[in-house]
Amino acid sequence: MKKYLSILLSVLILVGVMAPCAAAADTSECDCGFNPVIYVGPLGCSDIVRDAGTENEQKLWQIDTNYLLSCIGDQLGTLAKAAVTMNADTLADALVAFVDDCFGDLALNGDGQSLPNVTTPYLNVPSTDEHHADCDYYFDYDFRLDPFAHADRLQEFIDQVEELTGHSKVQLKCSSMGGVVLSAYLEKYGYDEIETIITQCCPLKGTAVAGELFCGKFELNATALRRYAQDALPYMEGGDFVQALLYSLTDTLRVAGVWDMLIGLGDIIVAQVLDRIYAEALIPIFGSFAGIWAFVPEEYYEEALVFMGMDENYGDLYNQVEAYRVAMANIEENLQSARNDGVKTYILCGYNVQRTPLVTAWKNTSDGTVDTMYASVGATCAPYGEELDAEYIASLSDTAFLSPDKMIDASTCALPENTWFLRDWLHCNGSDAIGALYRIMLTTDEQLTVFDMPEYPQFLQNDDATPSITPVTGAPNAFENFKNKPTFLNFALMISAFIDMIAAKMKEIFSCIGG
Ligand SMILES: [Zn+2]
Fold first, then answer.
1. Where are the beta strands (DSSP E) in 281-387?
2. pTM as predicted
3. Residue 439 alpha carbon to ligand 1 centre in Å
């Protein structure tokens, strides 16, 4: 009897142990009708740390103030000397050493590999089967590395999510640099497992800032830079490369009192100092990131290769940089094929925001970080704050895709009917109003166009304060613009509008007198 009992118990224990395994292995289909959403994060979506797991562990990206101060502390002696002598070279020595101290260990080697002790140990792994419109899976990655390596990881991630949830397709929502990962993914893996693609402010055709900086087209206006740092940067969220860099630099300079000194030195010397930081610290570090090379638009690429000295002498890094060019060149076609084969495809981008002022392309209309023409994959855009040429508008055979404020013509986009433009939308700034539009795109089974939803036409005015997105009806008023966004450029545009108004009034008065 005892023997039978023990066998029975053993069987029960075995069954008990096996039951959860059986349940876990059960990949039965889910009939909820909503394919899980994977959010492909922006640059800086994962922590990059040095010496993970040791007492010296230090975050090297979006670094904390203490680390910043400790790096600048090492240079205090040199800085003090520079302040006393007002010597630009001494100042440059200190700043180059500082940038190298802060960011130097992020640099990749010629094969595009990180230092072994600089890693991303906290990357997300899908672990729950919960999936609905308010719950997505967050895909993060080390932005420095080869976008095709991220594409491989994304495919694994998709497989894991599908297994967990019992769905055979996923929906991809890509934010900013997430579009680079998407481009590599579509090029390598296609879209068989994708139900929906949403791109939010993605540099699908690059961003002019990266192109110009990698070509050394560096136009410095110290005052504009300071105003930009004060006005625009604090409102920007997420981790953009240039923005985070400017943040770190300007904030450190402010903390250390260097900024006032720089302004005191005058523009020419400032330019000399920044030229040295650029050549001796920024290029060797950021020029080694295949991920940042993916931001260089096609028209800058050849020049950037020469300027940055990127050629076959590099090992795998050069191959990685070259391989991504194919993904970027094919993005129009890849998105069009996906959409034509039934993948719901939505491109969203911002416009009418002042972009980074330190490059010659500072007048490109943008979301502050990514130029609208690149995020929209081909829109024809007027310079920031201006309308398209009357001649150009007159030449359009169809004005269905022309913005009511005459700033954008979307007919030249890869997917004119599936591309939305949000005026005054700062790079990737989320709001409930924008979230509501995403919800429709994710939950509606068929592809929607810019003509399908009267409340969401192609051109929308974003208002973070309300928050709301409402149809754009006409040109923005320069006075309102300045009130809403008190930037230097808006101030200049307002003064110019004011002078125009006075001139028109004077003309009116004189013509009355004359008549
Ligand atoms: Zn489901």
1. 344-351, 380-381
2. 0.82
3. 16
